[in-house]
């Protein structure tokens, strides 16, 4: 449609005050409708600033892209498209289905897809197809890069990036003349008779740098390069650039650790990572400069996105074809109706969109150091980077010995408590021990039942879970405690230490989740994150034993069974009593 033809049709120009009021009203409705997703995203960005703080900036970058195209966008009146209303309803429906439907779909990124589709549909409905020529990129850029990527997706590539960072920094420090060894993802620097460990944790994998550089690369390619092939190459270079800079960052931390081990941990560790972003940015600018000058062409370059391609508009006037107010009212009514229906369905289905945390009854540090014939030999706290990777401050890591069985190896016991989360992948020793330099002997973990003495247990006459009565046991000879429901099944793997090939190393774990037992991370999602339960917690119990060549899995299960007969009641004294949680009896929780 030409400008002259447009001038003949009915149009309306909304005042600045009307536009601000309409925009503010839409923003309120969108925030209310997608509150569950948006609140969780902001919390991710605030609580994990080093990883996802950049997601808070992405919407402003997208807004800048829109501003750059303002002259072309406002050259003709906006004409609403009813196709957008269909996409808006489809996006809201998908978001609702993920939030209220099967547990497997209750995923931050899947809900984000519904939010994004709704945003695209709303934009298309109000501004029409012509506007999408300039708005499609800012919209997709914001949808893709302004949300956190969940652990379930990240771990697909994070572990591989850890390996690359470990190998690259090992060879880099070796070339610098350092005496090095590498065991899994742990580097050891030998200097003046001292061994200085440098652990490349998941946080050091470089994954966050890759994501940030992809966002930066796409933005720079969109505005700074003329040809499509140049833009694709610049985006593709984001990954190797981020990996290379991350290797240099780990090398820097290794060198600084030889001066003071505190330089490789804590706030200084984070500061070094931030400082390396500056040279990384200039490296990326250099890549873009090379791409711009790689081919000298006399041809007229493609018009840059955002360029007007014609005479400039003297004054910006946002005009709509007749019916803009009607489209606005329809969009608001559809979203409000969808939000009300969503809330009604959530109430009818008894679905809780936010999981409330449950405090420990008692700190895990109160677990007895001597329980029966088991006596604690050592307790240790993780380095700050490892604790960050663990994802909780509520944990104990101890070494116990059974004084009645001197031939048994010592037991490494690790207990970690998590609560209030909704989309997580529990950390398990399968990968962690491999990262520490061990090699898996068994191709897949195996499940074994522990032999628990239940002779002294009695059935709870009042409280039950899933139709099964709780069992009551006595801990410390005084306290009656409700035990978790289910059989104790340990997920077990065998490992080999290349430095001590004669040793047999077994590691196992299981979880207590919302008063129930499960041996798998997937079971945690089904139990702790049940959408019909308001509260959520899970506790990981992890064990490791190192024995001689004759030590086998039967011995491991025997030791585990004996230890759990005394440790389980102690740990349950610290965990929330799920019967009380179900009944709302959460008075005077322990300060943990």
Structural overview:
With 592 residues, the chain is an alpha+beta fold. It folds into three domains: 10-148 and 323-348, no CATH class; 152-293, no CATH class; 364-582, no CATH class. The protein contains 20 helices and 18 strands. The protein has helices at residues 3-8, 16-33, 35-47, 49-52, 58-68, 70-73, 82-100, 108-145, 151-175, 207-224, 228-236, 238-259, 266-275, 277-293, 324-348, 384-390, 429-435, 521-528, 553-574, 578-582, and strands at 11-13, 179-183, 186-191, 194-199, 319-321, 370-371, 374-379, 395-402, 411-419, 439-440, 446-449, 458-465, 468-475, 479-483, 489-497, 500-513, 516-518, 537-547. Strands 6, 7, 8, 9, 10, 11, 15, 16, 17 and 18 form a ten-stranded antiparallel β-sheet that branches. A three-stranded antiparallel β-sheet has the order 2-3-4, with helices on one face. Strands 12-13-14 form a three-stranded antiparallel β-sheet. Helix 2 packs parallel to helix 15. The chain is flat.
């Amino acid at each position: 449609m030409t400008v002259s033809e447009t001038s003949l049709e009915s149009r309306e120009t909304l005042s600045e005050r009307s536009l601000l009021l309409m925009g503010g009203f839409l923003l309120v409705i969108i925030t209310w409708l997608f509150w569950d997703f948006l609140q969780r995203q902001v919390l991710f960005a605030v609580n994990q600033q080093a990883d996802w703080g950049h997601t808070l900036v992405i919407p402003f970058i997208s807004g800048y892209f829109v501003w750059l195209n303002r002259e072309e966008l406002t050259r003709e009146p906006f004409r609403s498209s009813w196709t957008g209303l269909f996409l808006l309803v489809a996006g809201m429906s998908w978001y609702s289905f993920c939030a209220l439907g099967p547990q497997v779909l209750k995923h931050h990124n899947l809900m984000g897809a519904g939010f994004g589709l709704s945003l695209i549909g709303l934009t298309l409905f109000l501004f029409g197809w012509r506007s999408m020529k300039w708005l499609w990129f800012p919209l997709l850029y914001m949808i893709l890069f302004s949300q956190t990527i969940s652990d379930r997706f990240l771990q697909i590539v994070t572990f591989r990036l850890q390996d690359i960072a470990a190998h690259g920094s090992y060879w880099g420090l070796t070339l610098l003349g350092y005496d090095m060894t590498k065991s899994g993802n742990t580097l050891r620097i030998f200097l003046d008779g001292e061994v200085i460990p440098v652990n490349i944790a998941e946080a050091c994998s470089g994954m966050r740098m890759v994501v940030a550089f992809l966002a930066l690369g796409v933005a720079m390619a969109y505005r700074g390069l003329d040809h499509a092939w140049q833009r694709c190459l610049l985006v593709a270079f984001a990954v190797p650039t981020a990996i290379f800079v991350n290797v240099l960052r780990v090398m820097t931390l290794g060198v600084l650790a030889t001066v003071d081990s505190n330089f490789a941990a804590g706030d200084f560790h984070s500061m070094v990572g931030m400082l390396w972003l500056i040279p990384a940015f200039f490296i990326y600018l250099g890549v873009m400069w090379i791409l711009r000058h790689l081919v000298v062409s006399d041809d007229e370059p493609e018009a840059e996105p955002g360029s007007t391609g014609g005479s400039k508009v003297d004054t910006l006037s946002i005009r709509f074809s007749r019916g803009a107010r009607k489209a606005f009212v329809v969009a608001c009514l559809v979203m409000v109706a969808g939000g009300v229906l969503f809330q009604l369905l959530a109430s009818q289905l008894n679905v809780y969109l936010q999981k409330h945390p449950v405090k420990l009854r008692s700190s895990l540090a109160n677990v007895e150091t001597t329980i029966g014939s088991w006596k604690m030999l050592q307790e240790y706290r993780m380095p700050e980077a490892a604790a960050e990777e663990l994802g909780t401050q509520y944990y104990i890591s101890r070494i116990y010995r059974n004084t009645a069985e001197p031939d048994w190896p010592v037991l490494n016991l690790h207990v970690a408590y998590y609560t209030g989360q909704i989309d997580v992948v529990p950390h398990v020793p399968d990968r962690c021990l491999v990262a520490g330099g061990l090699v898996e002997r068994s191709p897949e973990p195996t499940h074994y039942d522990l032999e628990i003495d239940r002779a002294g247990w009695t059935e709870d006459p009042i409280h039950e879970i899933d139709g099964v009565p709780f069992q009551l046991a006595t801990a410390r000879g005084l306290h009656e405690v409700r035990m978790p429901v289910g059989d104790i099944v340990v997920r077990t793997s065998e490992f080999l230490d290349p430095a001590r090939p004669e040793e047999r190393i077994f590691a196992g774990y299981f979880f207590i989740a919302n008063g129930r037992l499960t041996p798998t991370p997937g079971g945690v999602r089904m139990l702790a994150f049940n959408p019909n339960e308001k509260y959520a917690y899970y506790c990981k119990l992890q064990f490791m034993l190192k024995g001689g060549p004759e030590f086998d899995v039967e011995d491991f299960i025997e030791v585990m069974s004996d230890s759990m007969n005394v440790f389980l009641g102690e740990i349950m004294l610290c965990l929330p009593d799920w019967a009380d949680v179900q009944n709302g009896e959460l008075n005077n929780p322990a300060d943990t």
